[in-house]
Amino acid sequence: MTDNSMTGAELGQKLLDSVRQMKAGRAARTTHVEPGPVVQARQAVGCTQAEFAALLGVSVRTLQEWEQGRREPTGAARTLLRVAVSSPDALRGLAA
């Protein structure tokens, strides 16, 4: 068993070094999250969640469930999402 403990001064120095690296833009790692297809469809049309949910005829909660991957759209909603991605202007016209 090894002792990996640091003194308070060592820990403080490591924290300061980390803050300096972050301020300089040298992060140890970055995370990039790709939005899912439902989010991409909504963004293509340029609607808020509430506007897009109303346009699709579903509740905001249902749209959120789709966007978060907890549920999958079915039937007409799935078709409208495909239209939103391929022809966002068609749905944008309905929202106006």
How are the secondary structure elements laid out?
Elements: H1 8-23, H2 37-45, H3 49-56, H4 60-67, H5 75-86, H6 88-95
Helix pairs in contact: 2-5, 3-4, 5-6
Task: Write up this protein.
There is one protein chain. With 96 residues, this protein is mainly alpha-helical. The protein starts with 7 loop residues before the first helix and ends with a helix. The protein has helices at residues 8-23, 37-45, 49-56, 60-67, 75-86, 88-95. The protein has a domain at 37-95: lambda repressor-like DNA-binding domains (434 Repressor (Amino-terminal Domain)). The model has no long low-confidence stretch (mean pLDDT 88). It is elongated and about 65 Å long. The protein contains six helices and no strands. Helix 2 (37-45) crosses helix 5 (75-86) and helix 3 (49-56) crosses helix 4 (60-67). The chain is 64% helix and 0% strand.
Descriptive terms for the model:
64% helix, single chain, elongated, 96 residues, 434 Repressor (Amino-terminal Domain), 6 helices
Largest sheet: none
CATH topology of the domain at 37-95: 434 Repressor (Amino-terminal Domain)
* Residue share in helix: 55-70%
Distance between the termini: 68 Å
Low-confidence stretches: none
In short:
This protein is an all-alpha fold. It has a domain of 59 residues: Orthogonal Bundle (434 Repressor (Amino-terminal Domain)).
